Amino acid sequence: MSALPIAAAAAEVDTGDTAWMLAATALVLMMTPALGLFYAGLVRSKNTLNTFMMCVGAIAVAGVVWALVGYSLAFDGTGDLIGGLNYVGLNDVTFVPREGTTIPHLLFMAFQATFCIITVALVSGAVVERMRFGAFLVFAALWSVLVYAVMAHWAFGGGWLLEGGTLDFAGGVPVEMGSGFSALAAALVVGARKDYGRQALLPHNAVYALLGAGLLWFGWFGFNGGSGFSTGNSSVLAFTNTLLCPACTLVAWFALDALRGRRVTAIGAATAIIVGCVGITPAGGYVSPPWAMVLGVVAALPAYAVIVWRPRTRVDETLDVLAAHGIAGFTGILFIGFFAQESWNGVSDGLLYGNAAQLGDQALAALAAPAYAFGATFVLLKVIMLVMPLRATEREEALGMDVVQHGEEAYASGEGAILVAPEAGAEAEVPVANPI
User: Fold this and answer.
1) Dihedral sign, Cα of residue 233, residue 234, residue 235, residue 238
2) Could you give the CA distance from residue 337 to residue 167 in angstroms, rounded to a whole number?
3) Which of 34, 35, 37, 39 is nearest to 318 (CA)?
4) Rounded CA gap, 211 and 209, in Å?
5) Disulfide engineering: 434 pairs with which of 226, 283, 388, 417, CB 3.0-4.6 Å?
6) What is the mean pLDDT of each run of 10 residues along the chain (436 residues)?
7) Is the whole model's pTM more than 0.70, yes or no?
8) Which H or E run includes 430?
9) Would you say 381 and 139 are in contact if contact means Cβ atoms under 8 Å apart?
10) CA dihedral 180, 206, 225, 306 (to 10 degrees)
């Protein structure tokens, strides 16, 4: 591109909006390593590194696939179910602002890429401690196109939910319900860990979990605040609500923990932060700050109930992605239908303010998104199973996924090197790194 078109494009770009969106994009990308830290603290020590690496793998695979084809399918065209192919390979994604924004199209694409990346990483929480790393990378590549890009188009890219009137400010449909109900499907297909229901499979580092959750909350100001694509009122409202809603969820969770077990737990606090951030994600730019605080309390109740109930089942959805993301996202989507205020959002009122139709639009999304995410993920994993094993053997699980999948340990002991000898008739030895 010559200097003249670049200068012309720059004249149409708002520099303040662009500066904020550059920062917001970096904040959202930081959320994926933060998620890795959060998840790593919740697993056993022998699986710490593998759990974190699944999030790093999502950055690699989902980021590349998004640039090549996912972005085009999500944001090109106005088809009801899926976008077009005009942006494949970032064709025509340049410095000129995307229609309806004052930021470069290229920056809009990068911001949306970080959403795809973290959503893929979120699903890993259902299958940690037993899914093979290579199988997860294959799944990540396919899921980011066949599930995430489709749902992003529905809610953000001109698809049927957006055109039908559904309000979703920052990703209740593709990110939260998409990851949560996909996680449930993944847990069912991959199956439970070998020790599930027989041993106490406890988090090994609550500090990691709290630190990861805190960094996620920090990044969420870019996630929600950036979804207004400007420094205007909607971004300011979402930014503020992202402070208030999780704070109220924390208070509610403290009370629930104290009532149930007479102790306020660190793992509960970390989970509460996530639930509050998820609940406000779809609603951030549509409800007033007082209603955002109410949502913080409301979102805690069903999420807490599912977390308490799930271990009583045989479903090893390991890190409660369904509760923290699927159920909290579902709650936030429906909350909009009741409590949206046009005086705050400039778009629409909810049922409480005289617009019952908005609740119908939100309820439709709350039904369609979980159904598609669960069904498509279930089928996708069944197909992958036909060509490669999804999970490690019981012996590999016992050794730990760090050693088996990466040849390294998160916590090296002694001189930092061990050698895992094979059983009779098994494959060759699995070396483990010997750090200098």
Assistant:
1) positive
2) 8
3) 39
4) 6
5) 417
6) 45 91 98 98 95 98 98 93 96 94 97 98 97 97 98 96 97 97 97 84 93 98 97 97 98 97 95 98 98 98 96 92 98 98 96 97 98 98 97 94 93 58 53 45
7) yes
8) strand 430-431
9) yes
10) 30
Which string of DSSP letters, residue by residue, matches 332-388? Answer: HHHHHHHH--HHHHSS---GGGT-HHHHHHHHHHHHHHHHHHHHHHHHHHHHHHTTS
Task: Write the single-letter amino acid at 201.
Answer: L
Q: How many CB atoms lie within 10 A of CB 91?
A: 11
- Distance, in Å, from the CA atom of 307 to the CA atom of 27, rounded to the nearest integer, reads 28
Query: Please, what is the angle between helix 178-190 and helix 105-123, to 10°?
Result: 40
What values do phi and psi take at 157, rounded to 5? -100, 15
Residue 199 pairs in a beta bridge with 196
Looking up tokens 């605040």 gives: 225
Nearest to 59 by CA among 13, 96, 105, 28: 28
Cβ–Cβ contacts within 10 Å for residue 51, how many?
A: 27
Task: Say which amino acid occupies 279.
Answer: G
Rounded to whole angstroms, how far apart are CA atoms 217 and 235? Answer: 16
Q: How many residues does the chain have?
A: 436
Amino acid letter at 394? E
Q: In the structure encoding, which two tokens stand for residue 224, read together?
A: 């929600």
